[in-house]
Amino acid sequence: MIYSKSTLLFLEFKVNNKDKTNIRKGDNMQNLGLNEIRERYLSFFESKGHLRLPSFPLVPQNDASLLLINAGMAPLKPYFTGKETPPRKRVTTCQKCIRTPDIERVGKTARHATFFEMLGNFSFGDYFKKEAIAWAWEFVTQDLKLPTDRLWVSIYEEDDEAFEIWTKEIGVSEDRVIKLGKEDNFWEIGTGPCGPCSEIYYDKGEEAGCGQPDCAVGCDCDRFVEFWNLVFTQFDKDEQGNYNRLANPNIDTGMGLERLAAIMQGVNSLFEVDTVKNIMTHVSKLAGVQYKTNDKTDVSLRVITDHIRSTTFMVSDGILPSNEGRGYVLRRLLRRAARHGKLLGIDKPFLYEVAETVINESKEAYPELEKKKEYIKKVIKVEEERFDETIDQGLSILNQYVDELKNENSRILSGDKAFKLYDTYGFPIDLTKEILIEHGIDVDEEGFNQEMNLQRERARAARQDMDAAGWNDNVFARMDKSIHTQFIGYFQFASVSRVLAIVKDDQEVDTLSKGNTDIKDQITIILDQTPFYGESGGQVGDTGILENNHVKIKVIDCKKLGDGKILHICKLESGIVSKGDEVKAVIDLERRKAISRNHTATHLMQKALRNTLGEHVAQSGSQVAPDRLRFDFSHYAAMTKEEIDKVEKEVNKVILNSLPIDAKEMPIEEARKMGATALFGEKYGDVVRLVKMGEYSLELCGGCHLTNTSQVGMFKIISESGVAAGTRRIEAVTGFGALDYVEQKEKLLEQIATIVKSSPSDVTKKVETLINELKTSQKEVESLRSKLARSSANDIMSNVVKVKGIKTVTARMDELNIDGLRNMGDTLKDKLGSGVVILATANDGKVNFVAMATKDVVAKGIHVGNIIREVAKITGGGGGGRPDMAQAGGKDASKIDDALNQVTSLIEQQIK
User: Fold this and answer.
1) What is the DSSP letter of 485?
2) How far apart are CA 556 and CA 522, in angstroms?
3) pLDDT tens column, 716-730
4) Comparing C-alpha atoms, which of 383, 427, 433, 385 is closest to residue 413?
5) In this structure, are residues 742 and 716 in contact, taking their beta carbons and an 8 Å threshold?
6) Measured between alpha carbons, how far is residue 382 from residues 219, 331, 509, 543, 737 in Å?
7) pLDDT digit string (tens) for 71-126?
8) Which of 247, 306, 666, 779 is deepest in the core (most CB within 10 A)?
């Protein structure tokens, strides 16, 4: 992964929290708000020819190395690496960032935060040190009017160029330019682009320092605040450790917006910066507490204030609470903030209310927040409510664990108990750790991880019970077992249903909106009841629409799981949908009718096959789709044309007989006694559904059917083939599909008739006549070729050579096909009387060889089968045969001459 040094330095907000006095401000410093600083910075660099880009989403695009964007340059990596061309060589951004490695420290100090904004100006092979340094100084001293006597600069100790620019061109006193070593002022990660850094510091004054006489830039105390880092990417480090100059060096700068705002506003921490302070004020009013009056409540206020900033922006960018990946980060933040709300005495969902303040403070820079306000609030509120249902009980259990540990004089909570808190009560492990630390107790994290792995194994096993292959994530196995879908769609094609679950990106979510779902994204919805048939028993799933006044969802497929859940695979077309919503579920009725025609025809065909081929016929697979049916069955041989015609006619006869179709449920034993046939792929319980078609067919089936066989319309078999040893496959069409098939065949017949200049009724005779004429012409052509070849035999004989006393003829004759080549070989062998003939031809991209030898040379050791095998290899082919006659093929016609040239040496090897 590529990170700039600006990333590494600005991820932690280090301002003095112990000092209760405000940062000393210069006389001319402006008290600028955070939003105004952001706009000033971006406008300033626009005036310098930079393209202002909006903040990239927190979700990295095409970058699997990052979970969340954590630096200003992170989304720009493709431009720095050359994988993509930047829209302009000069770019400026204010990038929203999330960082959570130190999440447990957020709130305990005023230095740490999970959300921050990073200002940056970037050059992709355009300007370099001189401009970067000059513009940085111009912005902080002339635009922001930071006093120069408060500013210090650090550079890499070997960067003389930067030193000259700072001191000679900018005019900074040499004693204010501090040279630091590679560890502090040189950015590199392994091999590749790297370079020195230069940082600008603000001096908060002696009262903020450590009091040591050697306190200066680089000291670990908080007096000197580094707020802008300029990275000069000018080298390419190779595997040998050499630093090679880049032809087009880059500039990457980073400045923490909250840190700069704290300096400009003369406050001690980001929590006192205007926009952040307004958020905390909202939390304080809800909790009835004031900041800086109690250390414990201060921790909770800081946690909530920071985490609601992060979560608001994360939800806006399409992240939803879940138990994995980004969703888990979001859930951790939300639940940690909710728990601290409890500590402040807030006993109701409140974070969604505070989110509105976050939106109001940042909506000018991030207009998407206002557009998605209701969605953001709803997602947060739903997650709060979900956690609220379990947190009190979970806390009670945890407190019980704490008492037990104290009584046992133990300081370690077992992994299985920590896992129970996570699995049953929704406590992320870090939340459990945070609560236990307050009691001086640790967690057996190794044991916790073991329990997590066991759960994954259980989920993996549960997936094996799923009917639908390809659902490889355990999100459905983890789901509440009580969630079940009632299928009501045999003859009811619409219903009002309640949303029980929503899944996106293999994670369960509570709310989803069009604004947070790409048009290509698929989501899964589970309803309490549905008319949609879920794919099972070979029948494909239904499609259709889910909608209400606020949302429209297109159902593109439907799957049935072994535990009774029916999964509606959807695309969200408009609006917002939430768990608990009521929607009208309507299937595509015409598509369902087509599926039902094919399913009913499948039952009829199975019976007709057994009647025609024998009782050994058993179904081994099927697919019932709207456009066709596919039926795999056991049979030992390909069906004859007569057998196929017989099955087809029998099925159509039953269709025309208009047999009633009845379906009813009964105990499975009763159905078996009636002689019902079980369909492949179905799982049967104690009670089964029996589908009866007159007195003709009786099968167990959970699929969708017609009410009368006449509704199938027409049945047509379009193919019969083998799919495995002892297994045949029939594909057939019905209804409009059969009509379409017949129409296509009629059009094809008419096209052929037009081409051969005949009527459709006479086209067979006309084609037969044309074929006979073609055969006659081809025979005449071959006869002429043979005559031509014989006439050239004398020319070939003039090139006879002797190899160890054996007469040998080789020739390439592309004008002959393989039959002509054999005839020519016979002719030449007769003319030789004694010897070897090797001939080659290349026709229609194919290479062929023919080899012949008389009996007397065979007696001397000649084996033309072995000779021609080696010859053919040279052309990329192979072959062989008898000692006196052989044939081979090849691929590369350009190698034929080379191959024939090897004949002499091959004969020499055979004659000792």
Assistant:
1) -
2) 9
3) 999 999 886 567 899
4) 433
5) yes
6) 47, 11, 9, 29, 47
7) 898 888 888 877 678 889 999 999 999 998 878 888 888 778 999 999 999 999 99
8) 306
